[in-house]
Amino acid sequence: MPLAIFFTIFTMTLLGVWAIERAESEARRADLEQLAVEASAALERRANANAAYLRSGAALFATQDNVAPSMFQTFIGQLRLDSNFRGADGIGWAARVDGADIPEFEQAMEESGATDFKVEPLPRADQVYAVPVTNLQPETARNRLAIGYNMFSEGVRRSAMIEAEETARPTASGKVVLKQEAGTEASGFLVYMPVFTAGEGNTRELRGFIYSPFNAQDFVDSALQGLENRPVQLAIYDEVVAPDRLMASRVTGEPGGESVVKRVEIANREWVMVLQSLQPAALSRLSLIALIAGLVCSTLALAIAWLLTRQAVEARQVIELLEEQAAIRNSLTRELNHRVKNTLANVLSIVSLTRRRADSIESFAESLDGRIRALSATHDLLTQSEWGTTPVRSVIEVEMAPYAQGRDAVVEMDGPHVELAPNDALSMGLAIHELATNAAKYGALSTAEGKVEVLWELVSDDLVRVRWRESGGPEVQQERKRGFGTDLIEKIVAHELRNPVELMFEPSGVRCTMLIPVRSPGEFMLRAKRMQQRMERARNTPED
């Protein structure tokens, strides 16, 4: 029960912690989605601002017969590009040049001041024209690296220019490495706006492209200014999420929490933005507090329940002990009543037989006194063993002690260790007393040369044979009056032992053989053991 209470409370605590962590996760996801909306809006604003510049330039150049370098520089100067154009490498002009006109175009560019202008690489046989970078402002050493580069020769740029020509709107290219990066692997992209002139029959002809090259990482960083300190990891991919399509990223910690995917349109091209929250702690502060509080409460409940359960168990043990003690008292009372009745019956038999054989009051009193004392001695011996089993040797020694002390007669006792039940020990004690009394008066114990041997042996596991043999005493008279001792041994003792007693009065001395049952420890032993265990439990039971 205490463990059940503990696990119940602790399980409820874990459910509470799980609910708190789930709410925290949902809150992080909501915050991440809000951040994704803000970031995508910032990127789209920056791309739209650049597209507006390109549209205005395309509108201006479409009205001119020729886009001269001086006019392009004047146009860029009048735009007064502000902070909305940060992240780009500038604005450039790339003219459409037919393959046959490239030498003439290169000469015209040198005449206009572009030293060593070359279109590289030249268009392939299957390409009708080239789109070389004609002008790129601001004019820096970095931007001059791109002058003359035929952007139509590269597949990613060519696809973006073709789509821009077809849609007549600003179009971003896929992931490229800008010529300005000078051999690095930095990701970049370009936004193209086609410039058309009117042709014959209400048609339009492509004159070239006004465009902007971007370093992708610089573009993203400039667009997301103000969001740098947000604890998230950001990654932007070109159209699909793949390692080779990564455009830009920002890492501020170890990722591992919730993630949100947001699609962003940058100049008619789709980017995929992946935001991932940082690895959260194992448990939030609120969850940790709830877990500790739940653990304390469950432990306290466990302790209280354990104490109450222990008190209940101890109370039940006390009740059981009292019940057992009452049962023991009842059993002891019944057994005592039974033993008292048996003892009184033995006393009455002894009194009756002694009275019949007595010649005078003195002989009657003397005989009765000795036999009662024999019963008393055996009772004392049984009491010392708590009415359990009693050794054969102990019974014989107790009964022979009054006759052997202070005499010259020899009493020899020998045999294995054998335990007798209480009633059988009483019966054997009476028989030994009668034999010893008779030997002291008339037999071997009445003379100094006399000798008494009491020998016993196990006949089987449940039967012991006790032999009494006298020698060296007066000759036993064969013609004699039958006495009380003979009747006691052959009738009362034989009846109690449930085996015949062989008593012989030979001239050399009295012989007696008794067969006594060796009972397995019965109720008297079981009761004693249970009583001892209960008393030990009672002593070990803590008091209130």
Automatic annotation (TrEMBL):
Domain CHASE: 63-274
CC terms in the record's Gene Ontology section: membrane
The protein, known as: histidine kinase
Magnesium found in the keyword field: no
Signal peptide span: none
Source superkingdom: Bacteria
Protein keywords: ATP-binding, Coiled coil, Kinase, Membrane, Nucleotide-binding, Phosphoprotein, Transferase, Transmembrane, Transmembrane helix
Record carries keyword Nucleotide-binding: yes
Subcellular location: Membrane
Species of the source: Croceicoccus marinus
Residue ranges of the TM segments: 286-308
Catalysed reactions listed for this entry: ATP + protein L-histidine = ADP + protein N-phospho-L-histidine
